[in-house]
Amino acid sequence: MTDSTDDAAVTHVVTAFLRNRGEVLLLRRSDAVGTYTGQWGGVSGFAEGDPDTQVRVEIREETGLEVGEDVSLIRSGQPVRFEDADLEREWAVHPYLFDCETRDIELSEEHDAFEWLSPTVVLDPDADREPVPELWTAYERVAPSVRSIAADSEHGAASLSIRALEVLRDRAAIATAERAEFGADPDGEWDELAELARQLLEARPSMAVLRNRVNRAMADATAAADSESPDGAPAVLETTLAGIDRALAADDDAAANASDRINGAVGTLSRSATVLEALRSGDPSRVFVAESRPAREGIAVAEDLAAADDLDCPMTVHTDAAAAHVLSSEAIDRIVVGADTICPDGSVVNKTGTRVLALAAAREGIPVSVVAATDKVSTREDVNLESGDRSAVYDGDASLDILNPTFDITPADCVDEYVTERGVLEPDAIGDVAAELRELEVWHDR
């Protein structure tokens, strides 16, 4: 961006937070810019026209990444307005949040350093990274929230579990930073963060992985209170940061273990980030993908795989209703699916169509592998299945009852193996994992 001065009006700028694996891209402003030199911020630039257009230009110019290819828009927020008395300028910052698939960027002359960091570093006075004014306020306008997690119909359970930990992390960081002004209040901080954790658990009650990962962060913080570690907000901040790293590593390891088992022709459906990574790293000779209505995320999976540099095999997309026919007429060696939740008895809750695919595979003698971190094992016997929009099935005027289940349940006897970060588990091992995860719920009694 090129600095310009207009003291007679508000100066509009865009700031984009690029997110990857729970961290955001922060850049240090160089001597080539005229304001806030040496301070850290997001991808930013003057919005002389439409901010939505300009933010894409700034991302390309300052990182070398393209929106729609390497970067995808998650949300934009209301502008942050503030006045800088030293510069005699009033600013309006238009914030954006993007998910980024890579950490490799091409730094422009406007910045002389960059790091991928937890956004909470902005609140840490000991981090030695002075932020540009109101950077945290801009981030808060687009940061994940209980509401955004509850409303998200595009991302899988594992992804939303990371978002939940981010929500808890961000609030813990704010409470920790407030100690400098208001003093420490461990009990009050804990009560506030425990209530937020409960809201997160209720936001998506069917997602065991979200429940288990939030429970682990709070249980570990409870254990810290009984040791030499700090209590209250700093403890929760520490355990959520560690929890994000642990969760991402578990998903990566599950994908790596599954990739070793992927060869020959493979069938799948829906969009599981863990399965997608396993397919990219495996050695399939052909991939069949059910389109997965109504969002048709299976199409996106096939496109992602077709674009993968290290995967060169035919991709075939078919309708959900044709799954049984495809398995009976094509030479498919294995079905590989993800899981929204694995019940204690080994049955699997996943995108609607998984049950039909697994039943058809059993009929044809094709093994079914469920790929998921053990955090997706539920501690509960009951299952809460979410439903989609009725209008996605029928929006006419006739008096009709509408069923649009988003998830279905695949019986355990239709699953041959569970591939996790711990390796391959047999169905009878799932109950032991569930018992282990129940121990994380003790924090509720504090």
Report on the structure:
The protein has 12 helices and 18 strands. The protein has helices spanning 51-63, 135-142, 146-151, 157-182, 186-203, 208-225, 233-259, 273-281, 297-307, 323-329, 354-364, 430-438, and strands at residues 11-20, 23-29, 40-41, 43-46, 71-76, 80-84, 89-100, 111-117, 263-269, 283-290, 315-318, 334-337, 341-342, 348-351, 368-371, 407-410, 417-420, 423-425. Strand 13 and strand 14 (348-351) form a beta hairpin.
Gist of the model:
Belongs to the eIF-2B alpha/beta/delta subunits family. With 446 residues, the chain is an alpha/beta fold.
Strand-helix topology:
Blueprint: E1 11-20, E2 23-29, E3 40-41, E4 43-46, H1 51-63, E5 71-76, E6 80-84, E7 89-100, E8 111-117, H2 135-142, H3 146-151, H4 157-182, H5 186-203, H6 208-225, H7 233-259, E9 263-269, H8 273-281, E10 283-290, H9 297-307, E11 315-318, H10 323-329, E12 334-337, E13 341-342, E14 348-351, H11 354-364, E15 368-371, E16 407-410, E17 417-420, E18 423-425, H12 430-438
Parallel strand pairs: 1-7, 9-10, 9-12, 10-11, 12-15, 15-17
Antiparallel strand pairs: 1-2, 1-4, 2-3, 2-8, 5-7, 6-7, 13-14, 14-16, 17-18
Helix pairs in contact: 4-5, 4-6, 4-7, 5-6, 6-7, 7-8, 10-11
How far apart the termini lie comes to 52 Å
Q: What percentage of amino acids are in beta strands?
A: 15-25%
Number of strands: 18
CATH topology of the largest domain: Rossmann fold
Which blocks of ≥5 consecutive residues have pLDDT under 50?
Answer: 1-7
User: Judging from the principal axes of the Cα atoms, what is the shape?
Assistant: globular
Major sheet: size, sense and barrel closure?
A: 8 strands, mixed
Q: SSE order, as H and E?
A: EEEEHEEEEHHHHHHEHEHEHEEEHEEEEH
Q: What class do helices, strands and sheet pairing give? A: alpha/beta
Q: What would you call the quaternary organization? A: single chain
Mean pLDDT: 93
The tally of helices reads 12
Count of folded domains = 3
Helix percent reads: 25-40%
CATH superfamily of the largest domain: Translation initiation factor eif-2b, domain 2
Architecture per CATH nomenclature, i.e. the level-2 architecture of the largest domain: 3-Layer(aba) Sandwich
CATH class of the largest domain: Alpha Beta
Radius of gyration over C-alpha positions, nearest whole angstrom: 24 Å
